[in-house]
UniProtKB/TrEMBL annotation:
Protein's name according to its UniProt entry: Baseplate protein J-like domain-containing protein
Organism in which the protein naturally occurs: Candidatus Niyogibacteria bacterium RIFCSPLOWO2_12_FULL_41_13
Transmembrane feature ranges: 42-61
Keywords, comma-separated and alphabetical: Membrane, Transmembrane, Transmembrane helix
Presence of the UniProt keyword Transmembrane in the record: yes
Length: 412
């Protein structure tokens, strides 16, 4: 049987089925393309966000990170016993002089008794209101108080002539010391006026007279306590002991901290002593006042330190080495001449010399070391004995470029 292709049946299922597959395939292709592009976008976004987070963390860590370097400088201890000439502007060490003044007094009961006869004494002013001619009064001339007590001058005096101004007499005067005619407390008087009994019944009697300048006192007759030499010595010992402490406090406060405290190079000079009553005079108590001056020599710590460094290591090490225990050394003075301002300075003890580190220079070298390792930088510094580096935080091993983030701790 002849088959005619035109008469072939085509199954709709086949057509439809073919059509469905074709359509399905056509629909699926654009959907897969969009999904791939979305996936690539998400991957890029994840990478970008991750990079941003890493960048932010790195910036944050860099801003908060730092390096602590503990540095142990080179040091050497020497047992020294050196003597140096020192003076005010002369010698190996220059001295500075400090002067302090103090007034101090002490009182204590008198310790001795004695039967004494003391005449009161004091000062008067004798006036010439009589004429322009001077008047001489010989020693022992009497002056009588308003109470009738007689006092005498112990030396000759000459009262100048009075001045005549406008036809009136202007009295002249002179000062004199008088003593009571007799011993006894009854001659102790306050301010008073005096006449000259020797001129009585003469025209000069009213023209020459006197007035008190001071009280007249000290008169005594009988057994009484007196001031003795032993009282003076005891008071002086007390005062000098007290002055030692006062001047020690004054040097502590008055001598600047950059000077060595002058322990032995000092001298107390007594300017004035006032002892009352006088030795052998009556009194229930004795009082001594002393005005004094302390002269002390000081030495600049830096100057002595430089001298020790140069003496033991040479001039090239000046300002490169310090003495870390200068205050603990024994520094004393001998052969002190306060008048010339000279002495011998003796320095003894175990002296600790410590090499100095230029911190700014070391930081710059660490920051700009290029290909050098950190330990290679430290190896270039002979003044460094040991160095330990600590990164903060510990996992962040990037060395900072900011010198403020490099913390140098010098250990002594």
């Amino acid at each position: 049987m002849n088959q005619n292709p035109q008469n072939k049946k085509i199954r709709m299922d086949d057509i439809v089925g073919e059509s469905k597959e074709t359509i399905r395939a056509a629909e699926q292709k654009p959907a897969q393309k969009g999904k791939s592009e979305r996936k690539r976008f998400l991957n890029f976004k994840f990478i970008a966000v991750s990079a941003a987070i890493i960048f932010i963390l790195a910036v944050s860590l860099d801003s908060f990170s730092s390096v602590l370097i503990n540095v142990v400088p080179l040091e050497k201890t020497l047992e020294i016993e050196d003597s140096y000439k020192a003076g005010l502007g002369t010698g190996a060490v220059n001295l500075e002089k400090f002067v302090f003044q103090e007034k101090f007094s002490e009182i204590q009961p008198t310790s001795q008794t004695k039967n004494i006869q003391e005449k009161a004494n004091g000062k008067i002013i004798v006036y010439n209101g009589f004429s322009s001619e001077p008047q001489v009064f010989v020693a022992n001339t009497r002056f009588e108080s308003t109470g009738g007590k007689i006092y005498r001058i112990d030396k000759k005096i000459t009262v100048p002539g009075a001045k005549i101004i406008g036809g009136k007499i202007e009295p002249s005067s002179i000062e004199a010391v008088v003593f009571a005619d007799k011993a006894g407390e009854e001659y102790n008087i306050g301010p008073d006026q005096f006449t000259v009994p020797g001129l009585k019944d003469t025209p000069k009697y009213k023209g020459f007279y006197a007035k008190s300048k001071t009280e007249i006192k000290g008169g005594f007759s009988g057994t009484t306590k007196i001031a003795a030499k032993s009282d003076f010595d005891a008071l002086k010992e007390k005062i000098l002991s007290r002055l030692e402490k006062i001047f020690e406090e004054k040097t502590d406060k008055g001598v600047p901290a950059n000077f060595l405290k002058p322990i032995l190079a000092k001298k107390i000079t007594i300017i004035k002593e006032t002892f009352e009553p006088q030795i052998g005079k009556p009194g229930e108590s004795a009082r001594l006042e002393i005005e004094s001056e302390l002269g002390a020599f000081g030495v600049l710590k830096k100057e002595l330190e430089d001298l020790l460094v140069v003496s033991n290591f040479g001039k090239e090490f000046k300002n490169k080495i310090k003495v870390s225990n200068l205050d603990q050394l024994s520094v004393s003075a001998r052969n002190i001449n306060f008048e010339k301002g000279e002495l011998d300075l003796l320095v003894k003890g175990k002296t600790k010399f410590v090499w100095q580190i230029d911190q700014n220079k070391l930081k710059d070298e660490l920051i700009n070391r290029e290909d050098k390792k950190i330990e290679e930088v430290f190896a270039l510094h002979s003044e460094i004995k040991q160095a330990t580096v600590f990164f903060r935080p510990g996992f962040w091993r990037i060395f900072p470029k900011d010198s403020d983030k490099i913390i140098l701790k010098i250990e002594n």
